[in-house]
Amino acid sequence: MTVLKAFLKVLNKSKIVIIMYTAILIFFGGFNLQTSQNSTNFIASKPDILIINHDKEEGITRSLINYIKENSNIVDRKGKKQEIEDSLFYREINYIIEIPENYRENFLKGENPIIEVKSTGDYQASLAEMMLTRYLKVANLYQTEVKEEEKLIEKIEDTLEKQVEVDITSKLDTNNLNKVTQYYNFANYSILAGCVYVICLILSSFKEPKIVRRTIISSMNYKKYNRQLLLSNSLFAVCLWAFYVIVSFLLIGNIMFTTHGLIYIINSFVFTICAITIAFLIGNIVNNKNVINGIINVVALGSSFLCGAFVPIEWLPDFVLKIAHILPSYYYIKSNELLKELEIINIETVKPILINIGIILLFSMILIIITNTVTRKKIK
Q: In 3-state terms, what secondary structure has residue 39?
């Protein structure tokens, strides 16, 4: 109780700075979610295509042009070659299809005439290229079997009209699960930075010469002292975690009331325990308050970048991920990434997440042992 009272007094003295810092971390966590929640959505759109036809618009040539018209926005652009190419450069056109003279006649002879194309190279141009390639492949396939042009065109158009029906069997709310994952991945930085900053700030007050001497000559064992101090510091960390969870309910909504949401919360709580032990170890090693900000940059920012809190984990190079394996943040974020893909939750599917949680707890135990060893040596 003596340690707890002293802790609360120090916490009360620094309450303004701590509240401001905590509020900033929670704000940035929510802001990160709002700015990135729509970044992975894809909206299909028709490409803008210019068709330059040097052949007569009849037969197979007309069929090709009609197919392109039905699946794109046809741009009517007249002018010199340089003016047309400028339109392509300024993205007024995505794709140019130039049908050569006598295309129909040569195609029916089986000569496979070349259609010249020019492209902006963006995703809409790629869509236009896929469209043209699809028609030509189907046309070339039937051309070897069907000699009559009308029947050939009929077969090509019948084939191209067929669409693949896709039945979505997954019931995952992928949009909201991605939001939750982004939010709790960013919590790696917020929770770790908050714990390191506040706990180091408080522990530095306990290292004043008078307090250190009184602690050494007291009858309290250093393990018991560390345990009480660790539990006292856990009060702040749990409050920070609780605030972060409450904000997730407000920002994300109903999905937090599901089993997925519960596992995200449990995973973040276990990581908070580990963050406390990391901060407690650093606080017992570092005596200077002025270096706390530098430590936050190294520990919180460094682990967040290496383990995928800011950049999606699948975008990170293999050598970076190998380094990340030595950090508890990696296993916390990995669990979040696994969780967003789980459709059915049972013992088998959750097993990898439970293993990661076990590894994080193991990190916590090791850090507590190291902290006690450091404290014992300092006392001696």
A: coil
> Which residues partner with 27 through β-bridges?
none
Which residue is listed with tokens 């001696």? 380
Q: What is the pLDDT of residues 265-278, one digit of tens each?
A: 999 999 999 999 99
pTM of the model: 0.63
Q: Are 198 and 276 in contact (CB under 8 A)?
A: no
CA distances to 42, 236, 246, 373 from 223, in Å:
56, 21, 34, 9
Q: Which residue has the higher pLDDT, 95 or 163?
A: 95
User: Could you tell me the two tokens for 276?
Assistant: 């406390």
Which helix (H) or strand (E) segment holds residue 195: the answer is helix 174-205
Residue with tokens 């926005």: 73
The model's confidence at residue 40, banded by pLDDT at 50, 70 and 90, is very low
